[in-house]
Amino acid sequence: MSGGYLLSPLALADLSDIWDYSYSNWGADQADAYVLAIHAAYEELAQTLEKGRPGGQSAEHIRMGYRKYLIGSHVIFFRCQARDRVEVVRILNQRMDVPVHL
Known about the structure:
By secondary structure, the chain is an alpha+beta fold. Helix content is 44%, strand content 27%. The protein has 3 helices and 5 strands. Strands 1-5-4-3-2 form a 5-stranded mixed β-sheet. α1 packs antiparallel against α2. The two termini are 24 Å apart. The relative contact order is 0.21.
């Protein structure tokens, strides 16, 4: 597969946990809306990369080759594969101890 984005197994689990937590606290409509906003964010990152810009901010201080993008209460950690695909590594709450989870 080339182009677009790829979610790691951990990122998929993060997304599921985010939906579950949001559903428990705010209901299905809010959970769906928030997960859709996260989904739109990594789609946008992939489109930006296809235009020749990596998007987000550098997260090199945490891990080489990683970038980050803030969406709501969460941070999408990703890396650029070649010039046409974003690999979403994790989607973590901004209060988490990031180095422990990456």
